[in-house]
Amino acid sequence: MNDILIPCDGSKNSLAAVKYAIELIQLTKGGRLHLLNVQPPLPSVTQLGLSQTAIRTYHQEEGDTALRKARAAVDKAKIAFESHIAVGDIAEQIIGYVRSRKCTQIVMGSRGLSAIPGVLLGSVATKVLHHATVPVTVVK
User: Could you say which of 25, 47, 61, 63 is the most buried, measured as most Cβ atoms within 10 Å of its Cβ?
Assistant: First the structure.
């Protein structure tokens, strides 16, 4: 069974990756999608005076916003999925998630929201390509 991880940051490229993964699941007639949003940790200075609950709430709200369109697309396609929000280094969280959930493939956008114009492949996609132990499909 296909267990496909799709890192989602709310960008057009990540939504294109979601649509591509939906097609893969439909073609193979089975599997599950894992939508993962990774929030960068707040800088230490920003955390001063904030409770851990407030920080968790902030990350949850930001993650939910980034995942909203991806969840809607997968729901509409009637495909089984899980969605998760993590905090940390994006590429490291992606690699760790694949290992812990035993995903069989990663489908990801070529560049995320913070991409520099003119760069063909973002730094996160490059790092994932170099460290992943499963096939990685990069969608533009």
Answer: 63
Alpha-carbon distance of 8 to 67, in angstroms, equals 6
Query: Residue 114: which CATH number?
Result: 3.40.50.620
Q: Which tokens belong to 70? A: 């991806």
Q: How many CB atoms lie within 10 A of CB 81?
A: 21
Question: Tokens at residue 89, please?
Answer: 């280094």
Domain residues for 15?
A: 3-139
pLDDT by residue (tens digit) across 40-87? Answer: 998 876 667 788 899 999 999 999 999 999 999 999 999 999 999 999
**Separation CA 115–CA 31 (nearest Å):** 30
Q: How far apart are CA 61 and CA 10, in angstroms?
A: 13
In this structure, what token pair is assigned to residue 36?
């993962």
- Give CA separation, 95 vs 14, 71, 73, 102, 123, in Å: 17, 21, 24, 10, 14
Based on its alpha-carbon atoms, the radius of gyration of the chain, rounded to whole angstroms, reads 15
How many structural domains is the chain composed of? 1
